[in-house]
Design goal:
The complex is a heterodimer of chains A (234) and B (129). With 234 residues, chain A is an alpha+beta fold. In chain A, 26% of the residues lie in helices and 16% in strands. Chain A has a 5-stranded mixed beta sheet, with helices on one face. By secondary structure, chain B is an all-alpha fold. Chain B has one domain (9-97, 106-128): de novo design (two linked rop proteins) (Up-down Bundle). Chain B is 71% helix and 0% strand. Chain B has 8 helices and no strands. In chain B, helix 3 packs across helix 5 (79-87) and helix 5 (79-87) packs across helix 6 (89-95). The chains are: A alpha+beta (234), B mainly alpha (129). The A-B interface holds A 44-48, 50, 56-57, 59, 81, 84-85, 88-89, 91-92, 121-123, 125, 146-147, 149, 167, 169-174 and B 21-30, 32-37, 40, 57, 61, 64, 67-70.
Chain lengths: 234, 129
């Protein structure tokens, strides 16, 4: 059923029950996100896609559109909150873009540019987190994990369907873990997909290094905004 | 919960915030990360090293947690801080840093010099032997 919603004052046609962040992208309105992947189930963990829906802040990846909905994206208060959420991700872990292999193809970095972040308003914590190099395909750089849970929810062992990545402990002690036995059974293609899925430089493929030269990296070529609006899967 | 006038409200608020940091599941960013920053702020107030900017940031960051957290825990976690700032502003004002000619009220000189103090103590003991 076709319905009408308003995004930033413009009336927009949409299919009832479709996801707000997708509807916005289809109509040329970019909403930044770190955990949502188009076509996959919503995770709702990063909250960076929060916008005002009928006056209340809501994560747009969790909202199903309904007739008459009034959505504000280009609005000062919610814009600042989105930027704050990106900033708090930067201060919570250790994100040193210049020395990170993922630089230029990192979604956190690209979204940081999109929300016009300069430095984090939150105190940097410089946590000490142990990295895990035990699996065949991956370096697990825990410093950079933002707990989006993409790898946890979308990467499974092809034979048993078991999860390969998991988050142990909770709250501030949360830690990303890998089932080495299952991870080593992955095909190289599956491993590459898993590494590419990571929005930050936490899951890094071994033996690659800085594989794309400057200027030819994913987000050098095309910004995350252009990619999202073109409906490309990350 | 019932408290009488002998209880220290700031200490109660600090404990509440600590509770919410412990109870956060860590799934969504604002509650997982914001809670810790709020706890650090209230600890700074209790230690007498906060300035007005810290209280302003408490209100702003609490609003971020309230608006963007995923569940009720995150949306209400910062309430003890903002409601107490609202209802007992004099308690907070009394605790603000009085330090003059300081660049950074939050700077903890004692903590920063703790290594020196320990080394000095060891040195004295060494000499006395």
């Amino acid at each position: 059923m076709s319905i009408t919603i308003t995004i930033d004052g413009n009336e927009v046609e949409a299919e009832a029950g479709s996801t707000l962040i997708d509807v916005a992208a289809d109509n040329g309105v970019y909403i930044p996100s770190l955990c949502y992947m188009r076509g996959r189930e919503c995770l709702g963990t990063c909250r960076v896609c929060s916008v005002k829906v009928n006056g209340n802040m809501m994560a747009s990846c969790t909202v199903k559109v309904a007739d008459g909905m009034d959505v504000e994206v280009d609005e000062a208060e919610s814009k600042d909150m989105r930027r704050a959420l990106v900033e708090i991700n930067f201060s919570e872990g250790n994100h040193n873009c210049p020395s990170c292999e993922k630089s230029g193809r990192c979604e956190l970095q690209a979204v940081g540019y999109e929300v016009e972040m300069v430095a984090s308003r939150f105190p940097y914590r410089f946590p000490v987190r142990k990295r895990d190099h035990t699996s065949k395909y991956f370096f697990l750089e825990r410093d950079r994990c933002i707990f989006c849970q993409r790898c946890v929810q979308f990467v499974h062992d092809e034979e048993t369907g078991k999860k390969i990545f998991s988050i142990s402990k909770r709250g501030t002690h949360a830690q990303i873990d890998i089932d080495v036995e299952l991870a080593d059974k992955m095909t190289p293609e599956q491993a590459r997909k898993a590494a590419e899925m990571c929005p930050v430089g936490c899951i890094i493929e071994k033996g690659l290094g800085f594989n794309d030269p400057m200027g030819e990296r994913k987000f050098d070529v095309k910004s995350i905004r252009e990619r999202a609006l073109a409906g490309e899967e990350e | 919960m019932i408290f009488d006038e002998t209880r220290d409200i700031l200490e109660i608020v600090r404990r509440f915030m600590h509770f919410f940091v412990e109870e956060s599941c860590g799934i969504c960013t604002p509650c997982r990360a914001g809670g810790v920053d709020m706890l650090n702020k209230i600890e700074r107030v209790v230690a007498g090293r906060a300035c007005q900017q810290d209280l302003d940031e408490c209100n702003q960051w609490a609003e971020l947690m309230r608006c963007t957290s995923r569940c009720g825990l995150g949306t209400t976690a910062a309430r003890p801080i903002i409601t107490s700032i609202d209802k007992f502003p004099e308690l907070y004002e009394a605790k603000l840093s009085k330090a003059k000619h300081t660049l950074l009220a939050s700077f903890d000189l004692e903590k920063a010099m703790s290594g020196h103090a320990e080394v000095f103590k060891n040195l004295v003991e060494e000499v006395r032997k």
